[in-house]
Specification:
Number of strands: 11
Shape: globular
Number of domains: 1
Structural class: alpha/beta
Bound molecules: cytidine-5'-triphosphate, magnesium ion
Strand order of the largest sheet: 5-4-1-6-10-7-11
CATH class: Alpha Beta
CATH architecture: Alpha-Beta Complex
Mean pLDDT: 96
Oligomer: single chain
Distance between the termini: 30 Å
CATH superfamily: Spore Coat Polysaccharide Biosynthesis Protein SpsA, Chain A
Order of helices and strands: EEEHEEHEHEEEEHHEH
Length: 230
């Protein structure tokens, strides 16, 4: 059986959040935001180790106590200029640990509300799939394309559209090669698709939100406080 590893890109600056502190370190439910993200992954017994990709000049990581996660948590100081580059650098650093057919679950540091149920569902539904898959949510709202003049240019057909989330779960070698071939993607599935593969869509829900704007922090705090998972 293939082993499973998590890889958490955490080298962004959080420009849409604004402020001095990168959003992954903002306080959330009494901890830095990324603590909750890492906790969700470390609590999953099927995941052998959790690699976290930090910016080479990260000044925040060292201020916190990560010992609750023990030796399964492995910081890598190899973040790049884009998310794809950070993930690609992280995969390269995992070369001595992960085998070609092992699974890598790439999960945004900025998604602290991943539930154990969603994570288990991804792992179960992807199973031993030849390609891999991602958590995603069917689009609920009617979609409008901006006409560029402050008015609606068009209504976009919503049926069949999904919002991609993370974790995104792929075989180590396939993902590494795909990201080496194309960096112009905003998620791992995009790189896999560019190689002609069709990742599985695994239904999640909107509680697995990506904290992007200041108001998202309050929503994340509410979700963590009300989920009943401890
Ligand atoms: N990320 C990364 N390396 C980068 C850019 C982003 O590891 N060069 C990580 C972020 O830390 C985050 C995840 O990728 O956990 C998703 O990216 P996003 O939500 O866009 O975070 P930021 O890029 O930090 O935010 P913004 O786009 O608002 O600047
Ligand atoms: Mg970004």
């Amino acid at each position: 059986m293939s082993r499973k590893f998590a890889l958490v890109p955490a080298a962004g600056s959080g420009s849409r959040m604004g402020g001095e502190c990168p959003k992954q370190y903002l306080p959330l439910a009494g901890r830095p935001l990324i603590f909750h993200t890492l906790d969700a992954l470390c609590r999953c017994a099927e995941i052998e180790a959790v690699f976290v990709v930090l910016a080479p000049d990260d000044r925040h990581w060292g201020s916190y106590d990560w010992s609750p996660f023990g030796s399964r948590l492995k910081p890598l100081w190899c973040g790049g200029a884009s998310r794809a580059e950070s993930v690609s650098n992280g995969l390269a650093a995992m070369a001595g640990t992960a085998g070609d057919d092992d699974w890598v679950l790439v999960h945004d540091a900025a998604r602290p509300c991943l539930s154990q149920a969603q994570l288990a569902r991804l792992i179960r539904e992807v199973g031993e799939d030849a390609v891999g898959g991602i958590l995603a949510v069917p689009v609920a709202d009617t979609l409008k394309r901006d006409g560029g003049d402050g008015r609606i240019g068009a209504t976009v057909e919503r049926s069949g559209l999904w919002q991609a989330q993370t974790p995104q779960m792929f075989r180590y070698r396939l993902l590494r090669r795909a990201l080496e071939a194309t960096r112009a993607v905003t998620d791992e599935a995009g790189a896999i698709e560019a190689q002609g593969h069709r990742p599985r869509l695994v239904a999640a829900d909107i509680t697995n939100l990506k904290v992007t704007y200041p108001q998202d922090l309050q929503l994340a705090a509410w979700i963590l406080a009300n989920r009943g998972e401890t």
